[in-house]
Amino acid sequence: MNTEAKKAVVQARNLVQKSGKQPVINDIDLDLFQGECLGVFGLRGSGKTTLLHALAGIERCKSGSIDILGYRAGKSEKYKRKLGLVTQERSLFQDLNVAENLDFLASIKQASQPKIEEMIERFQLQPYLKDPVNNLDVGVYQRLALACALLNEPQVLIVDEMIRDINLDSRLIILKEMESFVTAGNSCICGFSNMEYVHYMDRVAWLDEGKIQIYSPEAAAARWNELVAQMPKKRGDIHV
Amino acid sequence: MFSPYFKIFRREFTYMWRDKGLRYVLILIPLLSVLLFGLTYRAQVLTDIPTGVADLDNTIQSRELIQELEHAQNLEVMAHYPDYESLRRGIEKGEVVVGMVIPEQYGKKVGARQHADVSMIIDGSNMIYGINSSTAVMLITRTISGESGVKALLAKGININDAIDAFLAIDFREDSRFNPTINYAYFLVLGLILNIWQQCCTLLAAMTVIGETGKASWKQFKLSTISRFGLFASKSVAHIIIFMAVASAIYGLCFSILGLPLHCSFSLLLLFTLGFSISLHSIGTMISSFARNASDASRMSMVIAVPAFVLSGFTWPLEAMPVPLAAIVKWLPQTGFFQGVIALTMKDAGWSFVSHYFLQFIFIAVVCYGLTAVIHSVVER
């Protein structure tokens, strides 16, 4: 996609976050443009979740600034009305069932009742409405999590490892909804650690040792393949 | 559509009802304590205190004395011992709590209107037995001693009325108010049950903040624009309603089923309890704001709630405590609450007596909720 012509909906500048004295995010600049799906690729422990939570404004960074939809995170909360988040860890209300989670989250996000019904239909949640969320299969849980994140009709959606290890039916529903979300002119940041999904992204921010490098999906896949190809040689070096 | 704050308020009830542990702690344990303490103190007054006798004289006079003892309301002669040593061992073994030793020559001395010593031994290891035994023994000895004195005067030819007047020259009339029969149930049961209740309430209050911020679902609140004040205020109102519902049930059972005295108006008692519930909740909430996790919050809340009852002046007067300690415990809401509840239910002390406690509750609540807001905002940053 041509990023020059697009308007940035999220702008992060000089982001620094530390875990103790160790930098997790080290002076990162990142832009998310309107209508794009930006993948944040990183292996476990690379700081992907920290970065996504910082971008969502739920975790404060040591330094740097984040502007979301024209608002400065930390100074205004207004952007939260147009932001959706699906976390890697199960962050829905464990004490409530599926229907109650939708109802409760719709209420705190000030979404309407018809929106709840629409989400139930779009994410095929009807059979699970009375089920407690901690008993749900991973795929159904992720469908529900995405449905909840979309209740307030966000313009920016941040999802963290949403389609890892889930069944094909749920994967299909989620990918279809994500696609239509972006097609409608909204923007999305997806944290992922499996290169299988790289082609769903418009650009890839590769996070390694606290720094990011931006790639096209093809270039990111090529770099990954190169790294994988080097593995037997590296293994041989170790054995020798 | 209901406001998000109403939903948060409503969810609190759902959450507490679905969490079996919380349900037991909040409802079952306080209500069970009504049954438990109600049954424990159902006798209300300690009677039939096990009593032993060592009659070393074995005369008509000594047997008369034993008969007097047998007729005493609170004592029950259960064992006879051949000598002082066996009686002492009987007390040591717990066979009897009170012992009377009638010495040799007792009958002879009484017959001759001479001074006679009768030893009374009381097991003081159990304070309740000790106090009741002393009172019962004192009543008997005073009566027997008086009778004996009157008989001595009669034997000297003094008119019976003059003899009685001589012994009852000063008539100390006891006018024991509020609990004339020294009914243990009246004094202890409500206090003990409310102690259990306040501990359970503190436990719940200690979950107000950490119960949300310690969970992954806190991210959902962080992502919303609802105010933290609104969120915690909605939860707090729900908690206080639950506290009051349980307290009302406890009062209902205590006053109607257990027959405990309620001399003040029920609405005044409820208003006073509401003030206490708010201050108690504020302390729990404050603990909750700086606790690292839920179990940390539970532990810290119990560190305050458990000794607070003992230090409240309910079981030991504040005036008898070291001055610095009494000054500190006066600032615990439990102190005012237990003092106030006793004064209201047993003495109908009225609003004028409890109003300063009530103001203290409100002051504690303002300080603790204020500190919670400050601590929470610092922790969030």
Description:
The complex is a heterodimer of chains A (240) and B (381). With 240 residues, chain A is of the alpha/beta class. Helices cover 34% and strands 26% of the residues of chain A. Chain A has 6 helices and 10 strands, in the order βββαβββαααβαβββα. In chain A, strands 6-7-8-3-9-10 form a 6-stranded mixed β-sheet, with helices on both faces. Chain A is globular, with a radius of gyration of 18 Å. Chain B is of the alpha/beta class and 381 residues long. In chain B, strands 2-1-3-4 form a 4-stranded mixed β-sheet, sandwiched between helices. In chain B, strand 1, helix 3 and strand 2 form a beta-alpha-beta unit. The longest helix of chain B has 30 residues. Chain B starts with a helix and ends with a helix. Chains A and B meet through helix 2 of A and helix 1 and helix 10 of B.
Using the alpha-carbon principal axes, give the shape of chain B: elongated
The fraction of residues in strands of chain B falls at 5-15%
Class computed from helices, strands and strand pairing of chain A:
alpha/beta
Q: How much strand of chain A?
A: 25-35%
Q: Care to count the β-strands of chain A?
A: 10
- Shape summary of chain A: globular
- Uncertain runs of chain B are none
What do the pLDDT scores of chain A average to? Answer: 90
Q: Measure the end-to-end span of chain B.
A: 33 Å
Task: Tell me about the largest β-sheet of chain B.
Answer: 4 strands, mixed
